[in-house]
Design brief:
Layout lengths: L1 H7 L3 H78 L5 H53 L1
Helix pairs in contact: 2-3
Length: about 150
Protein backbone atom coordinates (compact mmCIF):
# COMPACT_ATOMS: atom_id res chain seq x y z
CA UNK A 1 0.00 0.00 0.00
CA UNK A 2 2.84 2.31 0.86
CA UNK A 3 4.35 1.70 -2.59
CA UNK A 4 1.08 2.73 -4.18
CA UNK A 5 1.07 6.00 -2.21
CA UNK A 6 4.70 6.60 -3.21
CA UNK A 7 3.89 5.86 -6.85
CA UNK A 8 1.27 8.63 -6.87
CA UNK A 9 3.37 10.93 -4.73
CA UNK A 10 0.99 10.87 -1.76
CA UNK A 11 2.34 11.39 1.73
CA UNK A 12 0.00 9.38 3.99
CA UNK A 13 1.00 11.39 7.06
CA UNK A 14 0.06 14.63 5.31
CA UNK A 15 -3.18 13.04 4.06
CA UNK A 16 -4.06 11.95 7.60
CA UNK A 17 -3.27 15.43 8.98
CA UNK A 18 -5.46 17.04 6.33
CA UNK A 19 -8.31 14.64 7.17
CA UNK A 20 -8.01 15.53 10.86
CA UNK A 21 -7.92 19.25 9.98
CA UNK A 22 -11.00 18.84 7.82
CA UNK A 23 -12.80 17.05 10.65
CA UNK A 24 -11.88 19.77 13.15
CA UNK A 25 -12.93 22.50 10.71
CA UNK A 26 -16.20 20.70 9.99
CA UNK A 27 -17.05 20.36 13.69
CA UNK A 28 -16.06 23.99 14.41
CA UNK A 29 -18.12 25.38 11.53
CA UNK A 30 -21.11 23.26 12.49
CA UNK A 31 -20.96 24.37 16.10
CA UNK A 32 -20.04 28.03 15.66
CA UNK A 33 -21.70 28.89 12.34
CA UNK A 34 -24.40 26.50 11.17
CA UNK A 35 -26.30 26.13 14.46
CA UNK A 36 -26.35 29.88 15.31
CA UNK A 37 -27.52 30.73 11.79
CA UNK A 38 -30.34 28.18 12.06
CA UNK A 39 -31.26 29.57 15.47
CA UNK A 40 -31.37 33.12 14.07
CA UNK A 41 -33.53 32.00 11.15
CA UNK A 42 -35.96 30.29 13.53
CA UNK A 43 -36.18 33.44 15.66
CA UNK A 44 -36.90 35.54 12.56
CA UNK A 45 -39.57 33.09 11.48
CA UNK A 46 -41.22 33.36 14.90
CA UNK A 47 -41.08 37.17 14.79
CA UNK A 48 -42.70 37.24 11.37
CA UNK A 49 -45.40 34.82 12.52
CA UNK A 50 -46.03 37.00 15.57
CA UNK A 51 -46.23 40.07 13.33
CA UNK A 52 -48.84 38.39 11.16
CA UNK A 53 -50.82 37.37 14.23
CA UNK A 54 -50.60 40.91 15.60
CA UNK A 55 -51.78 42.32 12.28
CA UNK A 56 -54.78 39.98 12.30
CA UNK A 57 -55.57 41.00 15.87
CA UNK A 58 -55.35 44.68 14.89
CA UNK A 59 -57.71 44.03 12.00
CA UNK A 60 -60.19 42.35 14.37
CA UNK A 61 -59.93 45.29 16.77
CA UNK A 62 -60.63 47.69 13.91
CA UNK A 63 -63.73 45.70 12.94
CA UNK A 64 -64.91 45.65 16.56
CA UNK A 65 -64.35 49.39 16.85
CA UNK A 66 -66.47 49.96 13.75
CA UNK A 67 -69.22 47.83 15.29
CA UNK A 68 -69.09 49.79 18.54
CA UNK A 69 -69.26 53.07 16.64
CA UNK A 70 -72.29 51.87 14.70
CA UNK A 71 -74.01 50.75 17.89
CA UNK A 72 -73.33 54.09 19.57
CA UNK A 73 -74.70 55.94 16.56
CA UNK A 74 -77.82 53.80 16.61
CA UNK A 75 -78.19 54.41 20.34
CA UNK A 76 -77.83 58.14 19.83
CA UNK A 77 -80.41 58.08 17.06
CA UNK A 78 -82.78 56.08 19.28
CA UNK A 79 -82.31 58.53 22.12
CA UNK A 80 -82.98 61.46 19.80
CA UNK A 81 -86.16 59.82 18.52
CA UNK A 82 -87.42 59.17 22.06
CA UNK A 83 -86.77 62.79 23.01
CA UNK A 84 -88.70 64.00 19.97
CA UNK A 85 -91.58 61.58 20.74
CA UNK A 86 -91.84 62.75 24.35
CA UNK A 87 -91.80 66.36 23.20
CA UNK A 88 -94.81 65.71 20.93
CA UNK A 89 -96.76 64.25 23.85
CA UNK A 90 -96.13 67.32 26.03
CA UNK A 91 -98.60 70.14 26.43
CA UNK A 92 -99.24 72.36 23.43
CA UNK A 93 -98.01 75.43 25.25
CA UNK A 94 -94.53 73.86 25.77
CA UNK A 95 -94.50 71.96 22.53
CA UNK A 96 -92.30 74.41 20.62
CA UNK A 97 -89.78 74.79 23.43
CA UNK A 98 -89.46 71.06 24.14
CA UNK A 99 -89.14 70.23 20.46
CA UNK A 100 -86.27 72.71 19.97
CA UNK A 101 -84.48 71.37 23.06
CA UNK A 102 -84.76 67.77 21.88
CA UNK A 103 -83.43 68.55 18.43
CA UNK A 104 -80.47 70.44 19.88
CA UNK A 105 -79.70 67.59 22.25
CA UNK A 106 -79.95 64.99 19.47
CA UNK A 107 -77.56 66.96 17.31
CA UNK A 108 -75.11 67.28 20.20
CA UNK A 109 -75.23 63.55 20.95
CA UNK A 110 -74.80 62.69 17.28
CA UNK A 111 -71.86 65.10 16.85
CA UNK A 112 -70.19 63.71 20.00
CA UNK A 113 -70.65 60.17 18.74
CA UNK A 114 -69.25 61.11 15.34
CA UNK A 115 -66.28 62.86 16.96
CA UNK A 116 -65.55 59.80 19.11
CA UNK A 117 -65.94 57.50 16.14
CA UNK A 118 -63.55 59.58 14.05
CA UNK A 119 -61.01 59.71 16.87
CA UNK A 120 -61.21 55.95 17.39
CA UNK A 121 -60.93 55.30 13.65
CA UNK A 122 -57.90 57.60 13.36
CA UNK A 123 -56.19 55.97 16.34
CA UNK A 124 -56.81 52.49 15.00
CA UNK A 125 -55.58 53.53 11.57
CA UNK A 126 -52.34 54.93 13.05
CA UNK A 127 -51.75 51.74 14.99
CA UNK A 128 -52.40 49.64 11.89
CA UNK A 129 -49.99 51.77 9.85
CA UNK A 130 -47.27 51.37 12.48
CA UNK A 131 -47.78 47.60 12.53
CA UNK A 132 -47.74 47.37 8.74
CA UNK A 133 -44.54 49.44 8.62
CA UNK A 134 -42.93 47.18 11.20
CA UNK A 135 -43.96 44.08 9.26
CA UNK A 136 -42.62 45.57 6.03
CA UNK A 137 -39.27 46.25 7.71
CA UNK A 138 -39.12 42.71 9.05
CA UNK A 139 -39.93 41.29 5.62
CA UNK A 140 -37.28 43.49 4.01
CA UNK A 141 -34.70 42.39 6.58
CA UNK A 142 -35.54 38.76 5.93
CA UNK A 143 -35.27 39.23 2.18
CA UNK A 144 -31.93 41.02 2.52
CA UNK A 145 -30.59 38.33 4.81
CA UNK A 146 -31.66 35.61 2.40
CA UNK A 147 -29.96 37.38 -0.51
CA UNK A 148 -26.78 38.00 1.51
Amino acid sequence: MEQLFEAFGIDWKLLLAQAVNFGVLFVALTYFLYKPVLKTLDERKQKVAKGVTDAEAAEKMLAEADTVVTQKLQGAEGEAESIVASARDAATSERTRILKEAEARAASVASDAEARAEELRAKTLRESEKEIARLAILAAEKTLREKA
